[in-house]
Design a protein that fits this description.
With 256 residues, the chain is an alpha/beta fold. Helix content is 41%, strand content 15%.
Length: 256
Amino acid sequence: MKVIAITGGGAGIGRGIAWHFARAGWAVSITDADRQAGKECLEVMRAAGTKAIFVPGDVSKPGDMERWLKATKAELGCPDVLVNNAGIEIRKDVFKLSIAEFDKVIAVNLRGTFICSQAVAKMMARRGPKNATERGTIINLASTRAFMSEAGTEGYTASKGGIVALTHGMAISLAPHRIRVNAIAPGWIETADWQKASKAKNLHHSKADREQHLVGRVGVPEDVAKACQFIAEDAGFMTGQTLTLDGGMTVKMIYA
């Protein structure tokens, strides 16, 4: 049974990825700073017969991630795939955003991605024979904000741009160890109905919302999950790349 480890797996896109791979027969390990969200996701997966674990943790703290990965290896085995999904955003006027707030976003989104990638890569590099064609896959969640922005998103935008650069950097460094590293840059993915029970709600998008996308709809977590599965299972010749997943939104020119 293959093993997938997902950060920020308790809610939103992370929960969607966890549930998708659980249904596909994978063993699933998630970590999340929100204990309730993580527990709820774990209960759903186990109720469906999935072999799964949840360990609460902050991705910006190496000790938390070491504890999570140690538990993952002990209970499920070395991850075949790591999805660095955990992320936060602080929207604030550029003149009012504090350095502490900027640093917090970078610490979770970018530093956390490196911490987890480095730790899991060490585990992956030790598995299998020296001539193995592949020992593992790392998938980083970037964003279309790495390439385009709105006002008040400097910390988030910088972190996601950093993830794109980190992806191709680590792809080169880990290639000798037969570990592929890629990123997905989602656009608008609606996660309101993928939150923990106390926050979940159904949203109805307007015609204008839908028509911003060439495919005629807003994205859902399943879209990202399917992209993860493609990279993990069917894209063995792909590494160091960032896959834009936005329904065509960013290729449409807008004239003011």
